[in-house]
Amino acid sequence: MGTSSGPKLSGMQKQVLSLYRGFLRAARLKSPEDRRQIESIVSAEFRRNSQQVDRKNFLYIEYLLRRGKKQLDQLKSPDTVGMSSLYLNLHQPTNHKP
Question: CDD domains, from UniProt (predicted)?
């Protein structure tokens, strides 16, 4: 392959990408309908956070990564069919300062 022409990614950016890919891989193991729903929710959530979260707010990003990893572990469970329970967790209000 060779060297990439893109910018070097930070460790945290690599963690975010890895988490995103993990969700997409886990989605492939579900039914086609659930897979589409999971991919849609995950991409919307990551896009929303990329636009709304300050890139220098490392504590909050680390919190989102930890929460995402827990949700990914739940999604990987054979007992989890769809995203309904995870979807509720993703969209719980967070305590942002006014």
Answer: Complex1_LYR_SDHAF1_LYRM8
* Inter-residue contact 25 to 72 (CB < 8 Å): no
Distance CA 29, CA 92 (A): 26
**What would the two tokens of residue 34 be?**
């659930």
Q: Which residue has the tokens 């919307």?
A: 44
Q: What is the residue type of 52?
A: Q
Q: What is the distance between the alpha carbons of residues 98 and 95, in angstroms, rounded to a whole number?
A: 9
Segment 1-27, tens digit of pLDDT? 455 566 788 999 999 999 999 999 999
Q: How far apart are the first and last CA of the chain?
A: 48
